[in-house]
Write a structure and sequence with these properties.
The complex is a heterodimer of chains A (about 120) and B (about 325).
Chain A lengths: L1 H18 L3 E2 H8 L7 H13 L3 E6 L2 E6 L3 H14 L8 E2 L7 H12 L9
Antiparallel strand pairs in A: 1-3, 2-3
Helix pairs in contact in A: 1-3, 2-3
Chain B lengths: L1 H21 L4 H4 L1 H27 L2 H5 L2 H13 L1 H4 L2 H42 E4 L4 E4 L6 E4 L5 E5 H6 L2 H16 L2 H14 L4 H25 L2 H12 L13 H11 L7 H40 L1
Parallel strand pairs in B: 2-4
Antiparallel strand pairs in B: 1-2, 3-4
Helix pairs in contact in B: 1-3, 1-11, 1-14, 3-7, 3-11, 3-14, 7-10, 9-11, 9-12, 10-11, 12-13
Classes of the chains: A alpha+beta (about 120), B mainly alpha (about 325).
Amino acid sequence: MVRGLGELESTIMEHMWAIRQPASVRAVLEHLRQDRTIAYTTVMTVMDKLHTKGMLKRKSAGRAYIYEAVSSKEAYTAEVMRESLAGSGNRAATLVHFLERLTPEEASALEAALQVYPPGGRGA
Amino acid sequence: MTVAIVLALYGLFAALALPRLLRRGTWADRAPRLAIAMWQAASVSVVAAALLSAFAAAVPAAVVGHGLAELFEACAALLHDEAALSSTGTWAGLAAGALVLARVTTVGAAVLLRARRERRRHADALALLGQHDHDLDAVVVDYEERLAYCLPGRKGHAVITTGALHSLAPEQVAAVLAHERAHLRGRHHLVLAGAEALARAFPRLPLFEQARAEVARLVELLADDVAARRHPRVHIAAALVGLATGRVPAFALGAGGETALTRVRRMLHPQVPLGRRERAAGRLAVAALLAGPAALALAPVVAAFLAHHCHSLLTH
């Protein structure tokens, strides 16, 4: 069940990122019902959770809320990648490699080292 | 008291002089796994020497030698008898030992907990952003920057960006993912966490500081070697070049690309691995580092034990 909710979270975020505009729970429900049966309260719960997580912002419109993605998918991806990979000094968390600053000389030395071998060849 | 001093001197010597000894020559690049074990053994050796030195200062060797029952009596006496506790050596020894032990455990726990928290947060984000690709057996993130990494943990997986997928040939992608899986399978994040914890617990000590840097470098070489068992080395080298070039500054860490150069050269021109005799010598050194402090601490205990029994034999 938890796994199902996680998948629903990502489906809803995909949708919110794709439409790039505010939407009510009802509108999101209509979209989701195109390819599955799902209860209004389930969608409402998940969207509320996404709001708590800081992924969605909302404002009230009458008795319901209108939700909107806090940032675009591209911006969020860049933020996650920069913060958790480049920004973290704790290498035990995520093992990130190849994150070295190459000088132009080093870059060309690397390219040159590789030139000796034919592309796609079975060198070793 | 002599034991305590000898152990303290040994610890000091190991913490200051071992880094230079271990970094000598090119043997480490030819046997990264053994080199990692050596740095770990050296680190454990120094911590053990510190703890045993403190213990030796607190409890006289003669007492331990006269049997375990008497050791407990001695401990009980230490706790109840104020006269025994007033001895400065005992107090200093116990305090120093407790301090070292507390520092190692608290900093170690903090490093592990923080890493786990960051991993969970990143996993949550990946659940929204990434797509699991069954053919690659990796999570693909739609992002133009060329990145490949792994997220360790119980449900660990390799992660690669679309930017990396577009700039690398399929066989290079396979080689990179094999490298990442080698990290996951080898639990390299725990190796790094251990080195990180000691470097943070006792800052500015050459051994721990250099162990952290060297172990981080060596796990990369080791993962390259593991990947090279199944993938042609030239693909690994090409993938390294493809990922290391064309990077925006925000994603560049460290001062230079020295490790990247080493790794590419290592893949293209593999050096002869260490011979059997050299490996055996290395393993012996690891064992000596691990057992050394305990042997130093136990030598007078054994002597006292023998003296005690010989004395009883002679008097009966």
